[in-house]
Amino acid sequence: MEAELQTKAEKYETRASRCEDQARQASAKAQQTFYEVLAGYYRGLATDFRQVLEKRKTA
Question: What does pTM read for this prediction?
Answer without folding.
Answer: 0.89
